[in-house]
Amino acid sequence: MSLAQSLKPHLPYLRRYARALTGSQKSGDAFVKSTLEAIIAEPGLIADDDNIRVQLYRAFAGIWESAYVSVSDDPDNNTAQGHLNAIPPISRQVLLLTALEGFSVSEVAKIADVGENSINGLLEDAIAEIDKEIRSDVLIIEDEALISMELQQIVSGLGHRVCGTATTHKAALEAVAKAQPTLVLADIQLADGSSGIDAVKDILEKISVPVIFITAFPERLLTGERPEPTFLITKPFQPNAIRAAISQALFFSTEPQERRQ
Q: pTM for this structure?
């Protein structure tokens, strides 16, 4: 199997991680492209006798870390970077690599080039800062009752308020009309066959709000070929994955919101 064929199955998920880490599809996909260009220029970055997914993310980490200073100085992203500076870059990487991407402690240590013994401390630092983050009113668009209930529990447990739930496109728009959310969690396929993507598109025409999509088929929305979601959770999900995605979505929200007292 060629190197390109070996890397291909992992690229959608690297895009997911990159978008969550940088806060945008454009920036995240650009870093993924730079990573692939670096691998093409130096194929030795990916060895034949090791976990290729770990090596791919490790190569990405090197590219992202080398460019972090210039990213943080972006004058158009001051609000986002102000939030991000509260959590050290390495702690955010560790949180997303474990919660969102499902890597083990030993794998994260290899990717981020840190000692295994320091991983738990870095996670605690990230979670402590998340717990200080912005309180949000959350709209949950989900047609499976048990999943909706679980999401409500996770959201409430993080100190946010569920301002509405919906199972269809129409119900989602009605919920927004009643109480404008400051964060949206949305399934892709809804109860009546309508689309969560279409619902979110209509919502964003009315208000500016960060959105986290939840789907059983993330690779369909991680091609890098068109405008796609920045924040994407795979079903079945772990609570920490929701927590990590919420923290990143709120960090990159440009709308002024009230800090927790």
A: 0.70
